[in-house]
Amino acid sequence: MITIDYDRASVLEYAQRWARERNPAYYDFSGIGGDCTNFASQCVYAGCGVMNYTPELGWYYIDVNDRSPSWTGASFFYSFMVGNEGLGPFGEVRTLEDCLPGDIIQLANERGEYYHTLVLTAVRGGPLGRRYYVSAHSIDAYQRSLSRYNYADLRAIHILGARIEG
Predict the structure, then answer these.
(1) CB 3.0 to 4.6 Å from 58: which of 33, 54, 122, 144, for a disulfide?
(2) Average pLDDT in the 118-129 region?
């Protein structure tokens, strides 16, 4: 396998284009549990262009009835991204301060359940006063301040690259 770079500029272009709309190539899960991880997966795919078609444990979308749990489920997405040693994108847990635009943030409730997946689309300010901006679906947002969300905890996934056959 060959590791390729993660194209953060393409992620940000995709987020800008589709944060407030729906790409007709993908089903809109807004009315049946939320579309946030689906949107985040689309953004990550825009940045790497490779899926992992391993049944059940991969990360892929063919259609609404043929997709991996990690494409649309927050906890499955996390497990795939930080544990993937095969084809497709992979990342690692980092502090929010160590993340870059194009990385992924997940929010948790008081019970420690991660329920919302966001795409980090901008970081502004300096080390003493950083502000983080995200884009998401379900409650559509483009460049919304992370501070406007109500959550008990968060985890950040820094996407390192993707692996392709070769």
Answers:
(1) 54
(2) 90
